[in-house]
Amino acid sequence: MTSITQKTHYEILEVERDCSVQDVKNAYRRKLLNIHPDKTNKQLDSDIIAKIKLAHATLSDPQLRTKYDDELIQTYKKSGLISTGEGLDIVNLDDFEYVEEDDMGNFLKDCPRCTGENGFVLTEDDLAENGTPDGFGGYNIIVQCNACSLWLKIKYFDLEDEEEEGQQV
Ligand SMILES: [Zn+2]
């Protein structure tokens, strides 16, 4: 459970994955203000402050943030390949609820960890553009819960001919 339960920078600051730089700055200030120095546990305090500072430094810098996001995804992709234990839970897209809205198809699922309603959302565009072929005619896509840090690996097969005009390779 280590890799998935370890706090990400986003969780440390309690911000959304797609939050703005201003959100990061606000969260950083809020977090620092909320630390009440504990004389009995100075070491713990300084660890927390260091983590908050690192999270802020990383997420408020677009380049560092992009790199960090990539690393996060790679980490979870790797752990997803470990079949004995702590890998990613693999969920079939069939387990998602399909909702069509404004001609856009969305696949929704409540989070199995934090129970956040529709914690997992995949759009048809995500599936068409961001999936990784699994070598068996299907695709995988790795997504994170909107509300907590849980990542799931979603398996699916070709959505019936989603390729449309302007998709020349
Ligand atoms: Zn969740």
Automatic annotation (TrEMBL):
Signal sequence extent: none
Any GO CC annotation of this UniProt entry: nucleus
Function as written in the Swiss-Prot or TrEMBL entry: Required for the first step of diphthamide biosynthesis, the transfer of 3-amino-3-carboxypropyl from S-adenosyl-L-methionine to a histidine residue. Diphthamide is a post-translational modification of histidine which occurs in elongation factor 2.
SMART domains found in the cross-reference section: DnaJ
Protein name: Diphthamide biosynthesis protein 4
BP GO terms, sorted: protein histidyl modification to diphthamide
Locations listed in the record: Cytoplasm; Nucleus
PROSITE patterns registered for this protein in UniProt: DNAJ_2, DPH_MB
